[in-house]
Amino acid sequence: MYCLLTDRKATWSNKQRLTERRGIISCNENRSRDRKKNSQLVLADFHKKIKEAFEVFDHESNNTVDVREIGTIIRSLGCCPSEGEIHDLLAEVEEEEPTGYIRYEKFLPVMTKVLQERRYRPIPEDVLLGAFEVLDSAKRGFLTKEELVKYMTEEGEPFSQEEMEEMLSAAIDPGSNSVNYKEYITMMVIDEN
Amino acid sequence: MGSSTSIQHQFAFQNAEKAFKAATLIQRWYRRYVARLEMRRQCTWSIFQSIEYAGQQDQIKLHDFFSYLMDHFTPSSHNERDFLDRMFTEERFPQDAEMEKYSDYESIEVPDSYTGPHLSFPLLPDHATALVEAFRLKQQLHARYVLNLLHETRKHLAQLPNINRLSTCYSEEITVCGDLHGQLDDLIFIFYKNGLPSPERAYVFNGDFVDRGKDSVEILMVLFAFMLVYPKEFHLNRGNHEDHMMNLRYGFTKEVMHKYKTHGKKILRTLQDVFCWLPLATLVDEKVLILHGGVSNRTDLELLAKLNRHKIVSTLRYKMRKENEKQAEEKRKANQTSSAQTPTPWFLPQSRSLPSSPFHLRSDKAPKTSRSSSIPCGAPLERKESSWQVQHSVGLELERCQQQVGFPVIREKEEPLLLTSKADPVVGERPEPTREEWKQVVDILWSDPMTQEGCKANTVRGGGCYFGPDVTEQLLQKYNLQLLIRSHECKPEGYEFCHNRKVLTIFSASNYYEVGSNRGAYVKLGPSLSPHIVQYQANKATHMLTMRQRISRVEESALRALREKLFAHSSDLLDEFKKHDADKTGLITLKDWAAAVESVLHLGLPWRMLWPQLVNTSMDNALEYKSWLEDLAKEQLSHENIQSSLLETLYRNRSNLETIFRIIDSDHSGFISLDEFRQTWKLFSSHMNINITDDCICDLARSIDFNKDGHIDINEFLEAFRLVEQSCSEGQPSDCPQSTNANDSDCSSSGAP
């Protein structure tokens, strides 16, 4: 009888242990299933975002956009690439024989990867301020119009005349003919939000 | 070479590198900022365009409705016949003798107190110039002179061919202008910048002179005056808005009746005729073709040159000027034999089952996606065929509709068709336009270019087609042309080349959607025929603004229009949101919100991107939808008498209601009876599947009759909307949308099945 009892006890505790272990396994499975689900949701979310941004420029509703709009689309999705980086991306999404149009089917996977890898993060305000301060070697707190034009059109990835004029129209204080870059940055940041 | 110099070099190099990097960083940041602005600008543009086209589709539906009624309704009682008679007398096109009566101006006296410009005929260049100056000073031309001018204009136009020919041998410089849409400032600016018309300075105005803007009358007066003064050098093409049916909806009729309370009716009737006499196209040096819309793969210039353009009254509806008894009789017989069993439907189901124009209109397709449907535009549906199909599908719908509305079933056709009893017999008339001819005209007045090859139905506009570069090439080669100049579409820069620079769109109404929304442009052709574009924006204020400020301003206007639309569909939106909220949390995620809104509004807009601007929520991705809808309502609601749900219905169908009103008020008296309004609205709302009870309709009518005298005065009618617009603009010191295009509401609500 004792044996029976013991036996029964043993079986029961085995069972318990088994159930426990099964519980752990299934708990782990659940967690990884959730993670998968989450990442699937995130992926679906990315896809929707990308699709919407793409469609804004898909004027013919035929899943293509003009190649010149790709930079705008990428940037509006939260990324801040340089011109060089955009050219690299373009190389990945263009057709073998460039048609002047980019197809959605090619754009989606490349852009999804960019978002997943969180590439081309936007520039924090303080880093931006630092950049202006580098150009303002005398640490006056402002740049003259000539200086700004010189740097923007001769250094880095130079502005076109149109880009330069546009920046000047908002940045330059006509009274002093200079830009107080700290104020300028603050104003631009508020604009965005 | 010392170590110090190399260190200096090193420093210099490092500094240069630093500067380079800093510059790159700033440029990168700035370009992102600009890109986001560009995205906002594009979204704003999409909002305006989708609302505009939704309104146009509405218009088509409205006319489908009336078309069907006209073709199939047989009144069973005097009341019904009188009612419809009144509604459709505007379809009775005046005979030439009657036209004389309508344009009779000699009996109109000009009082001594009149301080506006005086005209005497024949017109001299000075008169035309004086007219421009007078209008610039905001004077108004007396009705007598208006009618006189229209009378002379009609005489002149009637001698012109359908396709006018211009040569750069005579006028060295030809200026082509696009849509003006009642924006007098732009016309004055063009004359100021480019010079007044003269024998050396030819002008071609490419249609759409009227509607939307507030000075359509003045624009017409100026254009007609110069045309009479310089008949060889000044040319006008007809646009799709030179059409009395379009004018009912898009503001021109309203403007005329407002400015000319006594003689407006006469003026409108005369204009209806004048519009039909406008030429269809202009050809420069046999090389450059100028027409309003575009072309199709079936465009036949020879046919267009030969047809009787005067008989094409409206491109919205294929309706011949008169039907004689015999034709009507045959038609009835055809209808009868095919529908022996089914009773005459005097009530329609949804327009979806009605093929009214050569293509089927799918009201559930967003403008963008509808382009992928491949309905060939070159396949006109035979009228008889469509009648039979309609009868067949309608028979079953009939019982339900009739029960719903409570109207009697008409079992027999006793009376002849409405029109024929009133029509005069055809005597010595020129041949009527065939369906093919009508379609040719619709194509050149309504079509838009697309980048894809081919030719397909223009389902966004509901008329004409989309034509690809191959169609353009084919046409240019067939007729040995080198360029097609057209208008019809608003472009941000006022112009746009496409199809390998073989097609030029020119649009002359700057700030069309809103101040700062777009530039206007005109194009000059010299003997070399190479186009030279001039752009402008007739509003100095915008020049002072930065790009961001300009975009923000236009954006605000677009968002306001969009919020109005959202409000107008509150109940449907609430239902749709609830579907996504099974757990009744009262919250909806961004993803679901976007899907829900699109499924109700069908505008094809990037809702996820618009979320932050339309939704004010502290939670990143979830919205308390009920309070959001309530906030929307608070923005729009005003008049205490009109309850929220009624106002919503009114609002959504505002444009249609107004158009119906104007059609019912066919004699332009300014009044319709409560009963007429109720009946028509009932008819219409069932047709559009708008779920509204009989009580609601009575309430609606009664609440619009502010002074309670049993009649609805058009002013009362519009007052309801004006009050709402007023309250909406209360918060904003800057402009409310000044033209009516922001108000066209989408009518395709989903009622209960």
TrEMBL record, chain A:
<dbReference type="GO" id="GO:0005509">
    <property type="term" value="F:calcium ion binding"/>
</dbReference>
<protein>
    <recommendedName>
        <fullName>EF-hand domain-containing protein</fullName>
    </recommendedName>
</protein>
<feature type="domain" description="EF-hand">
    <location>
        <begin position="45"/>
        <end position="80"/>
    </location>
</feature>
<dbReference type="Pfam" id="PF13499">
    <property type="entry name" value="EF-hand_7"/>
</dbReference>
<dbReference type="InterPro" id="IPR011992">
    <property type="entry name" value="EF-hand-dom_pair"/>
</dbReference>
<dbReference type="InterPro" id="IPR002048">
    <property type="entry name" value="EF_hand_dom"/>
</dbReference>
<feature type="domain" description="EF-hand">
    <location>
        <begin position="123"/>
        <end position="158"/>
    </location>
</feature>
<dbReference type="GO" id="GO:0097228">
    <property type="term" value="C:sperm principal piece"/>
</dbReference>
Automatic annotation (TrEMBL), chain B:
<dbReference type="GO" id="GO:2001234">
    <property type="term" value="P:negative regulation of apoptotic signaling pathway"/>
</dbReference>
<keyword id="KW-0464">Manganese</keyword>
<dbReference type="GO" id="GO:0005509">
    <property type="term" value="F:calcium ion binding"/>
</dbReference>
<keyword id="KW-0716">Sensory transduction</keyword>
<feature type="region of interest" description="Disordered">
    <location>
        <begin position="318"/>
        <end position="382"/>
    </location>
</feature>
<dbReference type="InterPro" id="IPR051134">
    <property type="entry name" value="PPP_phosphatase"/>
</dbReference>
<dbReference type="InterPro" id="IPR013235">
    <property type="entry name" value="PPP_dom"/>
</dbReference>
<dbReference type="GO" id="GO:0007601">
    <property type="term" value="P:visual perception"/>
</dbReference>
<dbReference type="Pfam" id="PF00149">
    <property type="entry name" value="Metallophos"/>
</dbReference>
<dbReference type="Pfam" id="PF00612">
    <property type="entry name" value="IQ"/>
</dbReference>
<dbReference type="InterPro" id="IPR029052">
    <property type="entry name" value="Metallo-depent_PP-like"/>
</dbReference>
<dbReference type="GO" id="GO:0030544">
    <property type="term" value="F:Hsp70 protein binding"/>
</dbReference>
<keyword id="KW-0677">Repeat</keyword>
<keyword id="KW-0479">Metal-binding</keyword>
<dbReference type="InterPro" id="IPR006186">
    <property type="entry name" value="Ser/Thr-sp_prot-phosphatase"/>
</dbReference>
<dbReference type="GO" id="GO:0051879">
    <property type="term" value="F:Hsp90 protein binding"/>
</dbReference>
<dbReference type="GO" id="GO:0004722">
    <property type="term" value="F:protein serine/threonine phosphatase activity"/>
</dbReference>
<dbReference type="InterPro" id="IPR011992">
    <property type="entry name" value="EF-hand-dom_pair"/>
</dbReference>
<dbReference type="InterPro" id="IPR000048">
    <property type="entry name" value="IQ_motif_EF-hand-BS"/>
</dbReference>
<dbReference type="Pfam" id="PF08321">
    <property type="entry name" value="PPP5"/>
</dbReference>
<dbReference type="GO" id="GO:0031435">
    <property type="term" value="F:mitogen-activated protein kinase kinase kinase binding"/>
</dbReference>
<feature type="compositionally biased region" description="Polar residues">
    <location>
        <begin position="335"/>
        <end position="356"/>
    </location>
</feature>
